[in-house]
UniProtKB/TrEMBL annotation, chains A, B:
This is Dipeptidase PepE. It comes from Chryseobacterium kimseyorum. The gene is pepE. Keywords: Dipeptidase, Hydrolase, Protease, Serine protease. Its EC number is 3.4.13.21. It holds the Pfam family Peptidase_S51. Transmembrane segments: none annotated. The lineage of its organism: Bacteria, Pseudomonadati, Bacteroidota, Flavobacteriia, Flavobacteriales. The keyword Hydrolase applies. Belongs to the peptidase S51 family. InterPro entries: Class_I_gatase-like (IPR029062), Peptidase_S51 (IPR005320). GO terms for molecular function: dipeptidase activity.
Length: 230, 230
């Protein structure tokens, strides 16, 4: 496999995908066209507008972009594509769309055959085992929470440390992930913004400038450094 | 109906349910025992320990508490109870438990017949039309997102304004609710901590010290004052 699962598409104050540019040139080496999966629709943006946003970035590295929503036969489109990018937004919307059109498995099979995949935020969640560690609001009801399982754990994108100054009793991110572990025996990778997971064949590492927080059942959470294997 | 749907059980720096004490004496007037529904299990606490926490508070206003998990026949327990309290925690866990044991409708029917109900946080979410505006992590897969619909709208508990100082690209609460409105034509009440919804017969008002933010499809969000009808 040859994949990147990133916490976010955009660093604070940065431009779309800019911080990942060198990585993406490497990821998509030898490929001149990819399919963009716009179904997560951040902020309710249209599939066309979202695809245009991806296209604008990928033009700068000479890769053409087609939106998956443009194809009548989406299964065929996925099977014939050379590589993929799934943008962020709402994971429930994304997963509902992929399952209802029976595309989750098709996409998984193609990526497992070696075609490059980039996911950001919701697009990274679907690379995990399930979407049960998304931060998103359940605005629609998907037929299942199962995802592609491109890595043997779950991902929490945009991982955020507790803010001791917040006078608010909503749950912290850590509390939420610990609640997940009371119901599921599965490793969770808390991926801070600026970090990403890189899988090349069977080697899975975490990359980027920040430490990464790992949660496992019946263990205290712990931090690993960039470059560590997962 | 005679219900309170509160944003939170506990104000920052306060004791459990303390800020609602006078309201609860009024809500449960004439009643000396209620059923506590502990299924949301905040932080993975046991049903027994969570019920004990509720019991400690209700002792101070001379109301006995039985945990719903203590009954073999939960339908009968709900039908025979005089009043209810559903505590906060994880809404997905709560809704999964209630649907799988066919208790959502039974509880709804009893509350609609006039028995008093208090919900906090997740317990308030289930008073709305659906749980699609919860903030919680989808740690388990419920058979449906439908809730009791004790009020003709959805609730977002612990409503939190955007923090302009946060250098983080995760979605704000407002962004999430606006995404909900792209997929659902339903009013959402953004209930800040310290506020609650009060329904007495057919009159529904919002109460507490804060303004309340209302979201409707194709409208700019707006604020209403405490005491306003919903």
């Amino acid at each position: 496999m040859n994949i990147i699962l990133a916490s976010t598409s955009t660093l604070f104050g940065g431009a779309y995908l800019e911080y990942l540019k060198e990585e993406l040139i490497n990821l998509y080496h030898g490929i001149d066209e990819i399919i963009f999966i716009p179904f997560a629709r951040p902020g309710g943006i249209s599939h066309d507008d979202y695809t245009e946003k991806a296209r604008s970035f990928f033009e700068t590295i000479n890769i053409k972009v087609k939106g998956l929503h443009e194809f009548d036969n989406k299964t065929e489109a996925i099977n014939e594509a050379e590589g993929y990018f799934t943008g962020g937004g709402n994971t429930f919307l994304l997963v509902k769309n992929l399952h209802e059109e029976n595309l989750m498995k098709i996409l998984k099979q193609n990526i497992e055959s070696g075609k490059p995949y980039l996911g950001c935020s919701a697009g990274s969640n679907i690379g995990g085992q399930t979407m049960k560690t998304t931060n998103d609001m359940p605005i629609v009801y998907p037929p299942s929470f199962d995802c592609m399982g491109l890595v043997p754990f779950n991902i929490n994108p945009h991982y955020l440390d507790p803010n001791p100054e917040l006078r608010h009793n909503g749950e912290t991110r850590e509390t939420r992930i610990k609640e997940f572990l009371t119901q599921n025996d599965m490793k969770v990778v808390g991926l801070r913004e600026g970090n990403w997971i890189r899988r090349i064949n069977d080697t899975i590492t975490v990359e980027g400038n920040e430490l990464t927080r790992i949660f496992e059942k019946d263990k205290e959470p712990y931090e690993i450094e960039s470059g560590s294997q997962l």
